Amino acid sequence: MSILIYGAYGYTGELIATEAVDRGLDVTVAGRDGTKTRGLAAMLDTDSRVFDVEQADTQLDGIDIVLNCAGPFVETYKPLVDACLDTGTHYLDITGEFPVFEALAERDRDAEKAESLLLPGIGFDVVPTDCVASHLHDRLPSANELRLGFEAMGALSGGTVASIIEHGSGGGKVRRDGKIVEVPFASQQREIDFGAGMRHAVTIPWGDVATAYYTTGIENIEVYTPMSATAGRALQIASPATAILEIDPIKDGLQWLAKQAFSGPSETRRNTETALIWGEVTDGERTMTTRLRTPEPYALTVDAATTALERLQETSSVPTGYHTPASAFDPAFVLGLEDVDGFFDEETTQ
Ligand SMILES: NC(=O)c1ccc[n+]([C@@H]2O[C@H](COP(=O)([O-])OP(=O)(O)OC[C@H]3O[C@@H](n4cnc5c(N)ncnc54)[C@H](OP(=O)(O)O)[C@@H]3O)[C@@H](O)[C@H]2O)c1
Prior knowledge:
Elements: E1 2-6, H1 11-22, E2 26-31, H2 34-44, E3 47-50, E4 65-68, H3 77-87, E5 90-93, H4 98-106, H5 108-114, E6 117-119, H6 127-139, E7 145-151, H7 158-166, E8 172-176, E9 179-183, E10 189-193, E11 198-203, H8 208-216, E12 221-226, H9 229-238, H10 248-261, H11 267-272, E13 274-282, E14 286-295, H12 297-314, E15 321-322, H13 325-328, E16 341-349
Parallel strand pairs: 1-2, 1-4, 2-3, 4-5, 5-6, 6-15, 7-12
Antiparallel strand pairs: 7-13, 8-9, 10-11, 11-12, 13-14, 14-16
Bound molecules: NADP nicotinamide-adenine-dinucleotide phosphate.
Residues 7, 9-13, 31-33, 53, 69-73, 75-76, 94, 96, 123-125, 157-160, 163, 259, 264, 297-298, 301 line the site of NADP nicotinamide-adenine-dinucleotide phosphate (NAP).
């Protein structure tokens, strides 16, 4: 299968393109900057295509799969997805952005008709937590509440910070009775053992609030990360101030600054740091918990995205329509990635 990686010269795109070429996949690198795209193609000895996302409808000849690494994805996904559905091409990305997950879920039937796969979130956000959600749901199908979380203290890339700023004014998010509800940042707080002892944790607007609903059908979902009670309280108080990010010049300026200031984790950090993943489901009577230990988030993203491309290349029947990582493959997908340990299961009866 022929794979086009868009946004291939970004921090994460380049890591994925390099890994995909190393694994022998048929890769074309693409992006809007001709010098950077052709430079990467020369370095990796691949084909290249240079185009703005708005021109995607004329750029997918001979391509079977598009992997979009150009974020903030809310600015790039639509023309690429439209072009994929027009040409029966599969679309994957590494987004963690709610509006993108939700917009793609709404294109499910169009994708079925086009015989295309729509698979957003094939990075750290949301592969390990999505597989944990699916694994827990398999263990307790009657569950009506799902809580997920992760502990990962690594460095961030400029693109990741720009994406956080892009959606910063949207506040916190949880899912209640099947609907995504906007709440203040850190609105829920509790103690969680992510795998290295009890930590104070707060809710964050992480992609699984959107995706785990499609994976499991569970209507109440929260995602947690460790944060001190004082910092959590400060975030709650600061929540209304994030409305300032709706002012375009302020948002654009901060995104520009983020791209200068954040360069992503070094190779050493990617190779040595780890992350802890935790999940819990309950049906009111029984509670199941599970944990995973994974590599550093960007390292996991590179492995997950490249492994997904390999899996699609190997299978004789690519799933079509909208999928989450665990529904496109299976909950054990994450266990097939390098240096992932788990699932470490526990059960409590109330
Ligand atoms: N799911 C996950 O766990 C995960 C992991 C890693 C990264 N990500 C996400 O992936 C995205 C990229 O991250 P990164 O670390 O690679 O950031 P980066 O180094 O800033 O790279 C961003 C890439 O996207 C391109 N791009 C941005 N806006 C574009 C537009 N409107 N049209 C065409 N190309 C555009 C950039 O091209 P120009 O330089 O020409 O603007 C660049 O190639 C971010 O949204 C980040 O949050 C997600």
